Each structure stands twice: as C-alpha cells, then as structure tokens.
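Lecture notes, part 5. Sequence design as translation. It can be helpful to think of inverse folding as translation between two languages: the language of shapes and the language of residues. The source text, in structure tokens, appears below.
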C-alpha cells in the first residue's frame, strides 16, 4: 500500500483528486484535521512521510511546501504553475513521448500540466517534433472552458442566483495576450515565439475545447488534411487517454463539455487541404488537472495508469 498526502485538499483540484483515489485499497491517504490543515510543522511531517504528495496550492504556497521537504524518498506532484518550466522538474504529460513517460516513472519532482496547455501541447508539439512545421510557425489558439477553471471564487460568481447578466455570455479574457499557461506551451512545444492565445470562459461547469488553425502553405511541405489526421492517429496510437477521431465521426457542432468527468482527450483534425483546424476536447478538471495528477501518480508508483480513471 502506498501513502499519499494531498496538500490543499479543500480546493477544486484537491477535492477531485481525493474523490478519485479515496476509495482505492492500494492507497492510504494521509490526512490532517481541520485545525492543522495550515500548520507548517504538521504539513512538513506529512510531506516527508508520504510516498507521494500532491500539491493543490497557489504558486507561492506550492514553493513553500517544496522547501519543507527534506526526505530523499519524498516524491512531489505539483498541480500549480510554479514549477512547470523548471528544468529540474519533469513536466507530466506522458503521451508526448515514450522518453517522457519514462522520466515521469522515475521522477521525484513532477509538474502537473495546465488545462489549456494540455490541449495546446497535444496538438502542437507533435507538429513541431515531427518536422511538419517549424518552431517559428505563427500559432494562434482559441480555447473555450467551463467556469470551474476559475477556482472557488469564480465558481461562486457563476452559481450565485443574483449573478451579473454578463456571466450568461461567453467571455474573452487575457486580452493583454498574457496567460499563466503560455510559458509551458512555448517550452514544451519548443516554439520560437509565444502563440496568440485567446481563452474564453463559458457558462457551463467543466469541459474544454482548444482550437489551433494551421495554414498548409506554411507547413514544411505539402500535407493534406488526411495526411495530418493520419499522422496524429499514428502518434497517439498506443495511448489510453488520447483518441484521434476519424473523419466520419467529426460532428457538425463540437461541444466543449462532451468529456466532462473523464480523463480522456479527443483530437479532431478537420478543414481542407489549404486550412486545417485542430481541436482537442478534454475535461479541464480531468485530463486538465486532477485526472492528469492521478494518472501521473499511478505511473510514478509503477501502477496501471488507468487505475481509478475513466
């Protein structure tokens, strides 16, 4: 049996991780009583005694938690943005390569990916790594997300019966073209320039659709939309949680919340031989957060990555 400590269990991601693993008979959850939840010494003891600790904290608190770890055997999964571009940490997206999966299995410090970043990287990294496009391709990305990604305060706003009428409309944000997920997008895809990233928060609880348009004339050689779809299908053929949707199954309308409550990610390659639209659909709380953390934890413990995930 493995011991696991969730530091920050009361947040959205922490609660989802707890729900996913609390009933497992191969996991012993280390918990703190409410009065010790923020006690530094109590947390320190848990962080150093657990086989794996999952940090579901703001960035500054996550860095503080890491500073409390002294045991060489303590392994950390950080769900914040604090360590996602730190070269001393492994970025936890196992599907991106077999080498990455091996690094995750042996990691002591693992940064769990961001939700938008997961959608973007699964679309763009294969293109760059496979040489279909150059690192200086001028990427643009639009993304729709449910409001649960806004955290407790944002959720309370959306679920307030007296809420502002503007919350009923999709809302663009990060209009200054700065967003906390952009550094990991650039880093993991090996991009020369940051993408133009336009996130949109919507009036549904969870789910996400990330879209990246590609001009075939800017690719490194002539590819058809079918060539690109076949490439993605081969790239992700052996993965449990990523599915490339066949041409005949691409819908007229693609719902961002179709994979809510799962750890799956679906990739859609559509368009034509001049303009291709790449879309990834996932649950921002699943494959975009808590599900990914549990998947990485399973890999680090040498277990079937699918354990307690759907």
């Amino acid at each position: 049996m493995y011991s696991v400590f969730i530091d920050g269990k009361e947040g959205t991601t922490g609660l989802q991780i707890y729900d996913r693993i609390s009933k497992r008979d191969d996991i012993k959850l280390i918990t703190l009583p409410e009065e010790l939840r923020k006690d530094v010494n109590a947390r320190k003891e848990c962080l150093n005694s657990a086989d794996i600790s999952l940090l579901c904290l703001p960035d500054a608190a996550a860095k503080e938690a890491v500073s409390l770890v002294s045991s060489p055997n303590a392994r950390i999964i950080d769900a914040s943005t604090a360590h996602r571009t730190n070269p001393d940490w492994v970025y936890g997206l196992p599907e991106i390569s077999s080498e990455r999966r091996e690094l995750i299995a042996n990691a002591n410090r693992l940064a769990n990916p961001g939700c938008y970043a997961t959608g973007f990287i699964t679309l763009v990294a294969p293109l760059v790594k496979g040489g279909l496009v150059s690192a200086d391709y001028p990427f643009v990305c639009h993304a729709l997300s449910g409001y649960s990604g806004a955290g407790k305060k944002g959720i309370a706003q959306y679920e307030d019966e007296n809420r502002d009428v503007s919350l009923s409309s999709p809302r663009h944000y990060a209009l200054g073209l700065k967003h906390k997920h952009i550094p990991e997008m650039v880093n993991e895809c090996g991009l020369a320039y940051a993408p133009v990233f336009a996130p949109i928060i919507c009036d549904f609880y969870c789910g996400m659709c990330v879209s990246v348009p590609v001009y075939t004339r800017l690719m490194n050689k002539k590819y058809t939309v079918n060539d690109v779809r076949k490439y993605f299908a081969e790239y992700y053929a052996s993965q449990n949680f990523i599915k490339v949707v066949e041409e005949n199954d691409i819908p007229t309308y693609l719902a961002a919340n179709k994979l809510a409550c799962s750890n799956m990610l679906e990739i859609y390659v559509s368009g034509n031989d001049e303009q291709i639209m790449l879309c990834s659909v996932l649950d921002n709380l699943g494959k975009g957060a808590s599900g990914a953390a549990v998947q990485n934890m399973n890999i680090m413990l040498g277990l079937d990555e699918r354990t307690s995930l759907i």
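The translated text above is only one of many valid answers, since several sequences can fold into similar shapes. The longest helix spans residues 115-129.
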